[in-house]
Amino acid sequence: MHRISSFSISLCGFLFFLMIPHEKLSAVAISVDIITQTCEKCAAESDVLSYNVCAASLQAVPVSHVTNLQGLAVIAMELALHNATNTLSTIKELSNNKSLDPFALVCLKDCLQLYSDAITTLADAIGAFLSEDYGTANTWVSTVMEATTTCEGGFKEKEGEVSPLTNENYNLFQLCDIVLCISNLLNYSKSTAT
């Protein structure tokens, strides 16, 4: 399986940062904090998106404070990709735990496949997004959201079974929801500009 390194993930964000014209950098930095503004808007428009998760996730990346809306979406996708990659490692570790219930091990095997596919899908979504093919990017990001729900739901098929991946599934779902919201904001801006 092809593994994406954290270097290539952060390189994408760094390169995107460099594409912002230097004249606009100070104006962006002085303007209302784009993270707060975006997360408030997205949380207000979504039944499931947590403002706190949105703000905390994006604020953890320093370049997010001086980027534009498209850059913020790419950062959210990079965070989602990093989350999915880390979760895949967690699933592999859990799968080696022979003390787990056999049903849980079957669920982990399903989640392993779902997260393996999610990593590839997110990498493709980033490429589509950077090409301003927001529709395709949204479709792929939505697919990843469904994967988290499927992974979590598998454990619930057996009464009393507790998913060891609840936090990971929740966080990836939230990051993907941030991406979809920002993409919709960009689509709206694009359609009103034409």
The fraction of residues assigned to DSSP E strands is under 5%
The major sheet is characterized as: none
Query: What's the end-to-end separation, in Å?
Result: 42 Å
CATH domain class? Mainly Alpha
Low-confidence stretches: 1-32
Per DSSP, the total helix count is: 8
Number of strands: 0
Secondary-structure map:
Elements: H1 6-18, H2 22-30, H3 34-45, H4 51-59, H5 69-95, H6 102-130, H7 134-156, H8 166-193
Structural overview:
With 194 residues, the chain is mostly helical. It has a single domain (6-193), classed as Butyryl-CoA Dehydrogenase, subunit A, domain 3. Helices cover 77% and strands 0% of the residues. The chain has eight helices and no strands. The protein has helices spanning 6-18, 22-30, 34-45, 51-59, 69-95, 102-130, 134-156, 166-193. Helix 5 (69-95) runs antiparallel to helix 6 (102-130). The chain is elongated. The relative contact order is 0.14. Residues 1-32 have low confidence and may be disordered. GO terms for molecular function: enzyme inhibitor activity. InterPro entries: Invertase/methylesterase_inhib, Pectinesterase_inhib_dom, Pla_a_1-like.
Summary tags:
disordered N terminus; Butyryl-CoA Dehydrogenase, subunit A, domain 3; 194 residues; elongated
Summarize the structure.
Belongs to the PMEI family. This protein has 194 residues and is mainly α.
